[in-house]
Design a protein that fits this description.
The protein has helices at 10-22, 33-42, 59-68, 87-93, 106-119, and strands at residues 3-6, 27-30, 47-50, 75-80, 98-101. The protein is α/β, with parallel strands linked by helices. Helix 2 runs parallel beside helix 3. The protein is globular and about 30 Å long.
């Protein structure tokens, strides 16, 4: 499974990379939504792990833009510390497949990735 991580916080990028590597996944990482959209245009990804709150363009708008690209089979999962009422609903309405909150444990990430792989 090819994974793109979209995260503006450098330490969160490092942690995400380490967790994915530990679980046996390779990933590309970009620091913002604009670069994420370009990466999805250029490459095939099975899953995008998307932060919600980022400067310039948030993850919700980025998900909407990615859906316009017509990449069938692309799963977009929000991983966010932005916990407000209806955040999951907001993510689903933006075209994301699901939403989990930070901090994400290794076990939780493994379960989500396994679920995504089974749905592929």
């Amino acid at each position: 499974m090819r994974i793109l991580v979209v995260e503006d916080n450098e330490s969160h990028r490092k942690v995400s990379k380490l967790m994915l590597t530990r679980l046996g996944y390779e990933s590309d990482i970009v620091p913002n939504a604009f670069e994420a959209i370009q990466a999805v245009k250029r490459n095939h990804y099975d899953l995008v792990l998307m932060d919600i709150v980022m400067p310039g363009m948030d993850g919700l708008q980025a998900a909407r833009e990615m859906r316009k690209l017509g990449k069938n089979g692309l799963k977009i999962l929000a991983i966010t510390a932005y916990v407000v009422p209806d955040i999951r609903k907001m993510c689903l309405e933006a075209g994301m497949n699901d939403c989990i909150t930070k901090p994400v444990s290794l076990m939780e990430l493994a379960e989500v990735l396994q679920k995504c792989a089974l749905e592929a």
